[in-house]
Amino acid sequence: MVMPSSTANWHWKNKNVTSWAKEWFERELTAIVIEGTEGNVTISSVRIEDGDVELGQRKSKLITIYDIQMKVDWRGATSDGTDVAGKLSIPEVSHEITLDKLSDYVYNWTLDTASSPAVNALFAFVKTRLPSALEAKFAEFPVALVDTHGKDLTVSGAPSLSGTPPPSTEANATTAASASTTVPKPAPVKQSQTNINTSSVVKEATFMAASDDLFGLFTDERRIPSWTRAPAQSAAQADTEYSLFGGGVKGKYVSLTPGKEIVQTWALQSPTWPSEHFATLTTTFEQSSDSTKVTFTLDGVPKGMEDEITRNLEGYYIHGLKSIGLGTVL
User: Are the C-beta atoms of residues 207 and 321 closer than 8 Å to each other?
Assistant: First the structure.
């Protein structure tokens, strides 16, 4: 029996493509040449100093997840033939800047050549013209990312097909209705309504934010979409239902201690997750002088799904928060 493509592509997937991204930026940015009456300039090298690049998929949608720091060496010649060299540091190249337009790129310039009128004129020319050339390439990057790696995440319902239609409205409504009627009561917390062998998954990450702020990002319905990039439902009260990632995760709040702990039932809306089965996710916040350690403890994960759930916590929770500039340390 062939699995419908809308079902095959329902569950979460993510692929780390940082190595490919480094090669892409090195190849594409070193091809840039700008010329003017002041002289000409090229990029001689590109280095990705920090960050990750991933392509994720949830509910048949491909999502680019990237936040990297970049350093560029540039060189050129003035109109009188003087060789000029310099460096450029770009603290953030990310989905949020390139696609969401949440902020502007920041460029930190360094001139390595001794100053002269001709050199200074070329340096001013570089600072004026090179950013637009770079940003044109940055805009091409997410398209190239999806074109190159999207096929590795989408699954066609039949071997000969490559398209992946989104789930139908009727299917979504049925799934939502089913989930809302099978969520267990918060006391006592039920791990499952069937006899399923389970285990636990624990992930930790440190974020450069206060525990109260992180608590709000996890529970405030208006703030959750900033890092999940999908609609959310959350009343942030015990014994109320919640929905994250556009319905990809559902459950019920058991208890909430602001800035300290969130306990909630948790079910992945995926063919790989057993029907009517709920795990319990406990999220704790431990604040220090300059950061907060967040520990995700998911009890009741079906045996055999530990690796998939670990990747999902890393890709959609931890890297989702990292993508909005919280600076995580795994």
Answer: yes
